[in-house]
Design goal:
Helices cover 29% and strands 23% of the residues. The chain is of the alpha/beta class and 437 residues long. Helix 4 runs parallel beside helix 5 and helix 5 packs parallel to helix 6. The chain is globular, with a radius of gyration of 22 Å.
């Protein structure tokens, strides 16, 4: 990958969404609520399968090398006329963690932005390509869009629906695959890799960025939540063939189209026991959860789970509570669940929902290092939090910038070299790769 040798140019869009590079103003980024100049080590060419989009009614902020100042750019002049412009953002292909947010004047914004992850992007004139503030944290290419050709999907969905005509879980996953383009759901029909097992219509968190349930006056959710609890038989009917026949098979509870599976822990424990008994060592069973009930985590460990991933936006209790808004559980319960899973011998991951300026804030960094030492987790999945960055920063009461996401990764790796970085769940055969991460 070619290195970026000088600060890229500012990108902006006109009212029709056409994207241009500015003749002399340079790209900036945001860490928390502060504009910053990207360090060149934080920049990479825009990954294949990424997308660019505009941020409506939001003028970009640029770095002016002549005046050595940040500058809000609401208009550009062309042929003697001023034209109103808007900021541009990148939505990256999976496997990359963003280092900076788009630099723009969010005070001009009239709406709360949809639930996507927003990344700073610019134009490198030397190499004639888009560049983003990002770092690759996972080399697994199974989840790239190029592997999910919908032209091959429809007949596979129809065939499986005929094979299991009374399975409600299959109907749910068919909708997820076709209507919501969920890659995990598509994997079930392709009979490969990680397949999802949504089970819970209820949740005991009220996340600000929940993608399956949002209040009517907020941004729309990305999915409709499952409205029933599948039976053990429905789960076994779909997931046992996957475990037995799919390459690199993972069966994974806890998906975007549900609440939290810990609310159905008793049923999931029974289904997992059956799958483990009949799969005879084939396939990996994973549990994604908020980890709110340590006793249920013990139950699920005993049932035969291979790995667990616990979701957190922060390891600081105050920020965790501001985002998750837990009901009838505490942050201490989550930490206890992480420790329980690790002590029971599972591969333990943190689904770390990151946002520059929050995740790399000096206080967060120190607390994260203590958390790693205390829990002995195996992996940090550095997942870009999909939420309006201005809304999130205000809700988290952000003031100031972070140390830099790249610097955060470097410090963790230096102090805890055994901790793996990632973006995706793994099969049990690859929990601890010999060649490192």
């Amino acid at each position: 990958m070619k290195k970026i040798r000088k600060l890229p140019k500012l990108l902006y869009a006109d009212s029709k969404g056409n994207i241009f590079d500015h003749p002399y103003l340079k790209m900036a980024g945001m860490s928390g609520n502060e504009a910053v100049i990207p360090d060149l080590v934080e920049l990479i060419p825009l990954p294949e399968d990424s997308r660019l989009f505009t941020i409506p009614d939001t003028p970009p902020i640029a770095w002016d090398e002549k005046t050595r100042q940040f500058k809000t750019v609401p208009v550009v002049k062309e042929r003697g006329r001023e034209h109103k412009i808007q900021a541009v953002s990148a939505f990256m292909a999976p496997g990359y963690v963003r280092n900076l947010l788009p630099a723009c004047d969010y005070t001009k914004k009239h709406i709360q932005l949809p639930l996507w992850s927003y990344t700073a992007v610019g134009w490198d004139e030397e190499s004639e390509q888009f560049v983003v503030a990002a770092t690759r944290v996972d080399s697994n290419e199974n989840w790239l869009p190029k592997n999910y050709d919908d032209r091959k999907l429809d007949p596979l969905v129809r065939k499986m629906l005929k094979e299991f005509p009374n399975n409600r879980l299959l109907e749910q996953l068919a909708r997820c695959a076709i209507d919501y383009h969920c890659f995990a759901a598509k994997n079930l029909f392709y009979r490969r890799w990680e397949a999802p097992v949504p089970t819970s219509p209820s949740c005991n968190s009220q996340c600000l960025g929940c993608i399956s349930l949002q209040p009517s006056d907020c941004c729309p959710s990305n999915h409709e939540r499952i409205n029933f609890v599948p039976t053990v038989e429905e789960i076994e009917e779909l997931m046992l063939p996957h475990m037995l026949n799919a390459p690199d098979a993972i069966v994974s509870y806890g998906q975007g189209c549900e609440g939290d599976p810990i609310m159905q822990a008793d049923m999931i424990a029974e289904a997992t026991k059956r799958l483990k008994d009949k799969a005879k060592g084939q396939g990996t069973i994973n549990f994604n959860s908020n980890g709110s009930f340590p006793d249920k985590i013990r139950l699920l460990c005993d049932a035969g789970m291979d790995s667990m991933r616990f979701s957190m936006n922060s390891v600081r209790e105050e920020l965790y509570n501001l985002y998750y808004r837990p009901v009838d559980y505490s942050f201490k319960d989550v930490v206890e669940s992480v420790k329980v899973a690790k002590k029971r011998g599972l591969f333990v991951m943190i689904n770390y929902l990151v946002s520059p300026g929050v995740s790399d804030a000096p206080e967060e960094v120190e607390e994260l290092l203590r958390f790693i030492a205390d829990t002995e987790i195996d992996m940090l999945q550095m997942r870009n939090l999909s939420i309006d960055p201005d809304f999130y920063n205000k809700e988290m009461k952000v003031s100031g910038r972070g140390i830099g996401m790249y610097n955060l990764l470097e410090r963790i790796k230096k102090e805890y070299p055994k901790v793996q970085f990632g973006y995706f769940n793994r099969t049990k055969e690859t929990f601890y790769p010999k060649c490192g991460v």
